[in-house]
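Rotation project, supervised by the postdoc (A.L.). Task for the rotation student: set up a whole-complex structure prediction and record inputs and outputs verbatim in this book. Inputs entered:
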Amino acid sequence: MVLAEGVRKRFGSLEVLKGVDLRVDEREVLVLLGPSGSGKSTFLRCINHLEKIDGGRLSVDGELVGYRQSGSKLYELKEREVARKRAEIGMVFQRFNLFPNMTALTNVTCAPIHVRGIKRDDALRRARELLDRVGLADKAQSYPSQLSGGQQQRVAIARALAMDPKLMLFDEPTSALDPELVGEVLDVMKGLARDGMTMIVVTHEMGFAREVGDRVVFMDDGVVVEQGAPGEVFANPRHARTKAFLSRIL
Amino acid sequence: MFVHMLLTNDAFKWSFMFDNMFNPPVLEGVRTSLLLTVESMVLGVVLGIVLGVMRLSPNPVISWVAWVYTWFFRAVPRLVLAILFGNLGILYARLEFGIPFDRQLLGLLGLDSVDGRVWGVDANTVLAGFYAGLLALALSEAAYMAEIVRAGILAVDSGQTEAAQALGMSRGLTMRRVVLPQAMRVIVPPTGNETIAMLKDTAVVAFVPVTNELFFQIRAVGTRTFKVFPMLVAACLWYVALTSVLLVGQHFLEKRFSRGVSQVTRQKMRAMSVGAPK
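Outputs recorded:
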């Protein structure tokens, strides 16, 4: 589903990604671990072209992200085409980023109606289904400021799902939440994983990684250091850096 | 003592003032000034939004055009601009739309009697009086509004744009549906100030001249009757009254655009708008 080969990204003189190689299969739940500044969030943002990559190749579902290949040359895609591809990838942010001027329901229906051109009634019906699925059917008419952090994040997940994405990206979805609200968001994500959604999750929730993750990938200093089944990596980390990180966090 | 002076100084001539404050030409002036305020603000806000968005465009040419516009129209005083527009008739006798360089090109082909003009009007009917004043005020207002709109857009968290883009929204759609509605909260309070300032600035078009405008009419009464000061007081009272009405309108607009914002933020916004610069 996702194939990264030597992906590089720099911000000014700071090289954040120094050649990331990674492969994510369909229906796989991949958990990205690593210390802050290791480049995992940046890598996630490269996958839907919120950040432009400076080197390497990155493709989703067999199509290059943000570029078009003609012969051996790469051309950057037009904004419209980039937007069309982004619509197929759902993204959930650390800070929720719900639209505060819209109700929960409108947050969910906005993109399907205005991007996909889905009929209003159909979009509303689907949005109510999705809100019900994340356990917020009764909050449809609430504005984000009237919802708790956990509820906002669940609306954000419903909003991403409304576009019927083939891939979901989660950028530290529970890091901004009070501890007692983390569970409700993780439960929704577990449900998604069970239903076979392809997911890439950046998180510090080791319990989630162990229980739901098909594979964990440890990143440090802009490269993939180690990867494997969660049980294996957590029990017998092979690299010193992985060991150091895990001993600090577990 | 001030009140004593107001009541006893004969130069105020209160009864004369009240008699003349509501005579038909002055009331017509009130109507014209309000009309000018509303129309120039509507044009100014629309053009200001376009310019504000242009200023933030990733395309350097578009951004530069918007910068030059705001630079020029903020640099020239409104009074000068109003008089300038009132005299544009000197520059162009007629305003015509058509193919550029038509006469020159057709002349080369030996066709002197035809031209490529599609539509035209006498410049004086468009660029004298009301429309010259309206244009001067609206174009100048757009420059100020562009800066306010830009500030409003920048005040919206960049996470909002990212979230909209991640959902596949184009830049235009993101601006229309997500960013501008939220920017409105920041844009509306200073726009209220601008509207009030505009109502007062309609007085400068008396020098275009726009002859049926409030200040022109009041001065006309004053100079005709040699009772200048009472009529100036009348002007003050009219502007105070009209401004008060606008303040009430602003209050309701702010309420409308702070939907979905918690009480606390709203109070913070109000505190900010009190100190908003002009």
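Student's summary: Chain B touches chain A through 23 residues (CB under 8 Å).
Supervisor addendum: The first helix of chain B runs from residue 2 to 8.
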